[in-house]
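Entry for the shared binder. Reason: the reviewer on the internal report wants the predicted structure included alongside the sequence.
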Amino acid sequence: MASTYYAVLTDAGAALEARALALGKAVVLTKIAVGDANLKDVTPLSSVTRLVHEVHRRPIDSRDRDRNDPKIALLHCTIPADVGGWWIYEVGVIGHLEGETTEVLYAYANHGKYYKVLPQDGQLITHEITIPIIQSTNAELTIELSDEGYITRRDFLYPLRATWTIAAAVAAGGYLAFPSGIDYRPSKNRIELHWLGLKLSPDKDFQEVSAGGAASMSVKLLFAADAGDEFQVEIYK
């Protein structure tokens, strides 16, 4: 059965991803906007460029990766108890290209009719919003953290992860290539690397490899590894 409430990647969001991928940059997601849509139900369409009637914006508190589909990013925000006095019918995700400031409506969703009360209404209620976003490309997504947010973390709850054995030996100072689909942004993403079950230390056992501003798919080993050795990597974006 089709979902009643859902989110879509907008045309502007898809174009932003395509630009980011072509330029080797990230898509920076900054805010989640809510609106009352003039008190009417809305249908999420990719052609939407703005909310019908925006009433509030919140920082994105955190972002997770769907357990079953790595292309789905789950964005979370919390509206505090002392903010409200309006209805929520629609939700949008705001973003821009890394290094630029021009923002677009990256994704758009409908929301079940909900009145966000204020303390003077007689109740203290926070409201949590989670928006699932299906990416159209493998462009990197980052979130812009704010002191206003409820949670200040940058990592995925579910990182990119792979375990594999190397077919050929890698000499000290040689390059260890990651499996297909595993990449990272040097100096921006956290890497946890294990060799034969042992956790390796950055700059002591391995070094990140610059890719000229693009995502990298290898690290430099500072020790020798034999053919058949097992590695495990986790990338936190």
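Summary line for the report: The chain has two domains: 7-143, 160-236.
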